[in-house]
Amino acid sequence: MEKSPLEHGAAPHRDDIGSLISLETTMLLKEFDRTLIIAALLYSAPYAQSILSVQCPGGQPVAHSAGPSLAIGGAGTGVQNDLFGMADNVANLGGMNRAVFSAVASFDFLSINQGRKSSLLFALSPRIFSFAFPINPVGSFGFSFDKRNTMNYRFVRDSMRTLSNGISVAESLGVAVVGGMSSWQAGWGRTVGSVALVGISYERIYLSSDEITQYSATIDNQGQPRPDSISCIFRGNAVRGGILVPLHKLTFGMAGEYVFKGKASRILGSIDTAGGRPGPQEFSLYLPPSLSLGISYAFSPEWMAAASGSITLWQDYYSQEKLGGNVDNALSFAGGAQFIPAPHLLVPRYWEIMQYRAGFRYSQLPIVTASEFAFGLSVGLPLLRGGGLVDLIAEYGKRSDSRLGYSDNFLQLFVGINGGRKWSQNTGIRY
Amino acid sequence: MRKSKWYCPLAAGISLGVLFSCSKFIDDSTDLGGNVIEDIYPDKVTLNKHFREYVMDSSALVSASSLPAPGDRMFGVHAATGSKMVMGIKDDERAAGYVQFVCTPDTGSTRRNAPNDTLKEVIIRFVRDTNFPSVCRIAAWYSNDRSHALNPTSSDVALDTMSFLDTAHSNLKDSIFHLPDSLTAMIFKACTTSNRDSARAHYVRDTFGFILSVISCDSLVRLNGNPQMAIRFRRGGTDSTDKYVTYGSLNVSYYYGEDITADSLDTIPALRYASKRTAVFHYDAVKLWETTSDMADPRRALFVSAIFSLQGPKAGDTLNVRYLLWHKLESDGTVLDSLFAGKNPQSPPGTVTIQGAARTLVNLCPTLRWYEQNDPSPVLYLYLRFNEDINQVWKKARWNTVPLLTAMISVP
Question: What is the ipTM of this complex?
Answer without folding.
Answer: 0.80
